[in-house]
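lol forgot to send this yesterday, sorry. struct tokens for the thing we talked abt
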């Protein structure tokens, strides 16, 4: 193996519905000291990945995997590669402590092959420290070695691909909310989203052990109400069309909005309905990326929750291994709880992957699907 062809899906950064498939040759003999060639085995895909594209400039997600113009003269200007979470195999390595054939899990480009530069190598994993990678947090740069990962289960790879990265946000968001909550009614918008479900499950299931008095309430579209109720992750569920029911028996309550949707109209409606009773607003995600009105953190006096910062804090306080062990236990309990709510769906080849991306972009993808994508 001297040359491999990397199949890459590029996205127009100004028009997210415009895609192109590009093939780039990677010469293995050109690998430099500590560089590693990864071959993508499988990756998951959901609305979370659309958030990466929608906030690509604002949050810096386009910087992780900058595309390079190829030998056929295809210009990369104005295009980006959407990050995904997936499993990859080491196909070639110029690092003495990383061997060919090793399986890892981490943040990958929507591409069949990619070259990283390994650093911070440890028994549990390593990081990509490549000069081309413009990272916004070291948490996104870590690759876990599956052989040493307490959360890895070869029989539940589809779950890990689709839920585990999102559940990391759920895990540290729950930790943050539990530390601050004082009996509020916690409102979770986009309650059917995977990150919101995970957060709700953690908050609700640990309420008794924490001796906490908060309530966990999901807000979702009318079509998703039954599914969200069936998950068992919420104390109560309301549709966006029935927000007035929130105040029917709780006039003295205080509310804390955990917003996963980034729909300014929804937040304004809640502000008008709840008034000063809406004591806190925390912005987490952007599932409703097409919303005409976006929330303004300054006007709302809202905070933006950045999960990698909380991960870094807790890893520093608990230690990396202890953090992974706690997280793995919580993640496995969640997967068991909601296992009957989802089904696996495969997508093979660049055409199928592109269609999956476009369906997720326009909101027509099945939210109950655990998408498993592979290149040919």
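and heres what i got for the seq, position by position
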């Amino acid at each position: 193996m001297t040359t491999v062809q990397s199949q890459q899906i590029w996205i127009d950064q100004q028009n997210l519905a415009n895609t192109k498939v590009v093939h780039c040759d990677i010469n293995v003999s050109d690998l430099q000291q500590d560089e590693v060639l990864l071959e993508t085995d499988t990756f998951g895909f959901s609305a979370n990945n659309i958030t990466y594209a929608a906030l690509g400039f604002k949050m810096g997600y386009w910087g992780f995997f900058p595309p390079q113009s190829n030998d056929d003269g295809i210009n990369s200007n104005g295009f980006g590669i959407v990050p995904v979470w997936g499993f990859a195999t080491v196909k070639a390595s110029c690092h003495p402590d990383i061997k060919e054939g090793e399986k890892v899990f981490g943040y990958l480009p929507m591409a069949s092959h990619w070259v990283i530069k390994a650093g911070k190598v440890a028994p549990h994993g390593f990081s990509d420290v490549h000069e081309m990678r413009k990272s916004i947090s070291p948490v996104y740069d870590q690759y876990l070695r599956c052989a040493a990962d307490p959360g890895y289960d070869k029989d539940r790879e589809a779950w890990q691909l689709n839920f585990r990265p999102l559940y990391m946000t759920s895990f540290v968001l729950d930790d943050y909310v539990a530390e601050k909550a004082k009996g509020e009614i916690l409102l979770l918008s986009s309650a059917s989203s995977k990150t919101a479900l995970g957060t709700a499950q953690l908050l609700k299931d640990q309420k008794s052990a924490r001796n906490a008095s908060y309530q966990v309430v999901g807000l979702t579209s009318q079509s998703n109400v039954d599914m969200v109720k069936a998950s068992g992750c919420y104390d109560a569920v309301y549709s966006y069309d029935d927000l007035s029911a929130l105040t029917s028996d709780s006039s003295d309550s205080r509310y804390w909005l955990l917003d996963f949707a980034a729909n300014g109209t929804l937040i304004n409606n809640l502000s008008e309905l709840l008034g000063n009773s809406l004591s806190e607003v925390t912005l987490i995600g952007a599932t409703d990326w097409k919303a005409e009105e976006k929330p303004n953190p300054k006007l709302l006096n809202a905070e933006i929750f950045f999960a990698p910062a909380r991960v870094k804090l807790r890893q520093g306080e608990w230690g990396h291994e202890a953090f992974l062990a706690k997280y793995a236990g919580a993640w496995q309990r969640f997967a068991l709880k909601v296992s009957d709510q989802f089904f696996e769906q495969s997508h093979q080849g660049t055409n199928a992957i592109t269609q999956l991306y476009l369906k997720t972009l326009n909101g027509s993808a099945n939210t109950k699907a655990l998408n498993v994508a592979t290149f040919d």
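The CA atoms of residues 345 and 371 lie 5 Å apart. anyway ping me if u want another try
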